[in-house]
Amino acid sequence: MAVPLRQKASDGPDRNRNTGVALRWHAHWDSGAISAAEARAAVGSFLDRVCATGGITVPRRVAQDAQLVVSELITNVIRHAPGACGLRLEVWPDSGLVQISVWDTSPRPPRPRPHDGRRVGGHGLEIVKAVSHSLTVTDRALGKQVTAQLLMSPVSPTG
């Protein structure tokens, strides 16, 4: 198992209950020191901890989507952006959001491919966009950050 260079959790989800403050976890890894499976496990552990001690319910569907998003984003880092990378997970109770940010050292923005159901592979960003409320790419001093937000409750058809 890869050990993050730096890993930090919030002081504890129970201390943030109903304050509007995000519950956070983040880690940074050296080049090649993370796998998609380990990143998925980190998401599952963090969200389990939030639910168990933070008094917040993260629906199972949202937890599964969060693991899928992290898997796709970390896989993109492994394939297209060799170098250090990081993962930041946040749950915003008042906004009902789970936010996932992955950064890497490549300055090249991700390039979604046109939809092609016959293509094998290359659907990661399509999948992330499909399950996310929003998806943004931000330039960083050394590379970029891709951030996906998931809603913990469905949006009503009327807005």
Can you offer a commentary on this structure?
The protein is an alpha+beta fold. It has a single domain (21-151), classed as Heat Shock Protein 90. The chain contains three helices and six strands; from the N terminus they run ββααββαββ. A six-stranded antiparallel beta sheet has the order 1-2-3-4-6-5.
Shape annotation: globular
Overall number of strands: 6
Mean pLDDT: 83
- The CATH architecture assignment turns out to be 2-Layer Sandwich
Task: Give the strand content.
Answer: 25-35%
Assigned CATH superfamily: Histidine kinase-like ATPase, C-terminal domain
Question: What is the number of helices?
Answer: 3
Provide the succession of SSEs. EEHHEEHEE
For the record, the CATH class is: Alpha Beta
Please give the largest β-sheet.
6 strands, antiparallel
Radius of gyration: 16 Å
Structural class based on helices, strands and sheet pairing: alpha+beta
Helix residue percentage: 25-40%
> What is the fold named in CATH at topology level?
Heat Shock Protein 90
Strands side by side in the biggest sheet: 1-2-3-4-6-5
What's the gist of this structure?
The chain is an alpha+beta fold and 159 residues long. It contains three helices and six strands.
Features:
alpha+beta, disordered N terminus, single chain, Heat Shock Protein 90, 6-stranded antiparallel sheet, 159 residues, 27% strand, 3 helices
What layout of secondary structure does this protein have?
Elements: E1 6-9, E2 23-29, H1 36-53, H2 60-80, E3 85-92, E4 97-104, H3 124-131, E5 134-140, E6 143-151
Antiparallel strand pairs: 1-2, 2-3, 3-4, 4-6, 5-6
